[in-house]
């Protein structure tokens, strides 16, 4: 903001005046960094303006509101739920269409038989993510003037879906929209052919050449290859993307998302389930430097007991710090 004095602090806002709920009617509250500030909130300028898209929270709400008796395992699975609500909205638009390009037509048929989950071994997931990116890129070129392209680098996905699903001036009619969808799908297949080869069986989403995770140490570029191999982690294949509850970003290499996750049944504190990455030690020579990386990348929780007796049963080492 300008430093001209017009944005000075006006004081502090008591916690009780922040947006809040008390005993929400569904019996739960969920959030995934989406805009959850109520309309008409009196102190709107006291809350931030940068939010994630709404689709992760919608999927969490969908699972928690399913009226099922959820177990601890269900809640662990929700932390790496890879169902894409945008995919569930976009893919049906291809149902009554046909691509003239054989490879694009094969891709279209794969999408129509898909469960909308961005799983590691899913070819359809790999096709969908490439298609969504081509759609967003094409819309960006059409809607953002070149003079503003350096400042506005992306169009929110909810706006993209609005243009495709609602009546807007971007497409004169449904036929024009359908032609646009097919052309972007063809571009996506060409991009995947260049990236992963002509055989669509090799287009599975999670792989080193597509969606994966590589964690690079801060000193990675300053050391020799042998040392770099000791310091760095990966690559390992990943599922999900930026719009799934299991948020793994929409770039090929996961650059953000949850490393630490916890699921708790409060009647059994010794049964707490965690993930973390890459390990419990920052020392590359420690056996605990990368001991959690593979299980984290494969969405496997581990138990962290709470009581002293249970902790002592699995203690690997103790360190005593004594005064000089």
Provide an overview of this structure.
With 324 residues, this protein is mainly alpha-helical. The protein has helices at 55-64, 72-79, 85-90, 102-112, 123-143, 157-165, 174-196, 225-231, 293-297, 308-314, and strands spanning 212-215, 233-237, 261-263, 273-275, 302-303. It has a three-stranded antiparallel beta sheet with strand order 3-4-5, with helices on one face. Strands 1-2 form a two-stranded antiparallel sheet. Helix 4 (102-112) crosses helix 7 and helix 5 (123-143) crosses helix 7. The radius of gyration is 24 Å and the shape is globular. The termini are far apart. The mean pLDDT is 94.
Strand fraction: 5-15%
**Uncertain regions: pLDDT < 50 for 5+ in a row?**
none
Compute the number of helices.
10
Look at the structure and give the mean pLDDT: 94
Q: How far is the N terminus from the C terminus? A: 52 Å
Shape: globular
The biggest sheet, with number of strands, parallel, antiparallel or mixed sense and barrel status, is: 3 strands, antiparallel
Beta strands, count: 5
Report the structural category: mainly alpha
Fraction of residues in helix: 25-40%
Strand order of the largest sheet: 3-4-5
Helix and strand string, N-terminal first? HHHHHHHEHEEEHEH
Radius of gyration: 24 Å
């Amino acid at each position: 903001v300008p430093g001209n004095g017009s944005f000075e602090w006006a004081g502090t806002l008591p916690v009780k005046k922040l947006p809040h709920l008390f005993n929400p009617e569904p019996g739960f509250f969920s959030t995934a960094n989406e805009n959850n500030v109520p309309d008409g909130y009196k102190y709107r300028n006291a809350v931030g303006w940068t939010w994630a898209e709404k689709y992760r929270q919608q999927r969490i709400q969908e699972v928690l509101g399913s009226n099922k008796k959820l177990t601890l395992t269900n809640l662990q699975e929700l932390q790496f739920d890879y169902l894409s609500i945008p995919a569930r909205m976009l893919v049906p638009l291809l149902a009554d269409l046909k691509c003239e390009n054989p490879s694009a037509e094969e891709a279209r048929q794969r999408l129509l038989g898909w469960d909308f989950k961005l799983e590691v071994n899913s070819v359809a997931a790999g096709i969908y993510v490439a298609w969504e990116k081509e759609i967003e890129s094409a819309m960006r070129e059409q809607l953002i003037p070149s003079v503003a392209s350096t400042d506005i680098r992306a169009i929110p996905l909810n706006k993209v879906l609005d243009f495709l699903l609602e009546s807007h001036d971007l497409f004169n009619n449904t036929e024009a929209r359908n032609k646009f969808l097919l052309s972007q799908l063809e571009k996506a297949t060409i991009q995947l052919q260049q990236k992963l080869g002509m055989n669509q069986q090799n287009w599975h989403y999670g792989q080193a050449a597509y969606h994966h995770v590589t964690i690079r140490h801060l000193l990675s570029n300053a050391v020799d290859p042998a040392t770099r191999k000791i310091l760095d982690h990966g690559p390992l294949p990943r599922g999900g993307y930026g719009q799934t509850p299991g948020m793994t970003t929409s770039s090929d290499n996961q650059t953000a998302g949850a490393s630490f996750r916890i699921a708790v049944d409060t009647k059994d504190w010794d049964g707490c389930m965690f993930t973390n990455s890459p390990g419990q030690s920052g020392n590359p020579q420690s056996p605990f430097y990368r001991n959690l990386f593979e299980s984290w990348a494969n969405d496997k929780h581990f138990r962290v007991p709470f009581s002293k007796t249970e902790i002592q049963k699995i203690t690997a080492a103790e360190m005593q710090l004594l005064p000089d």
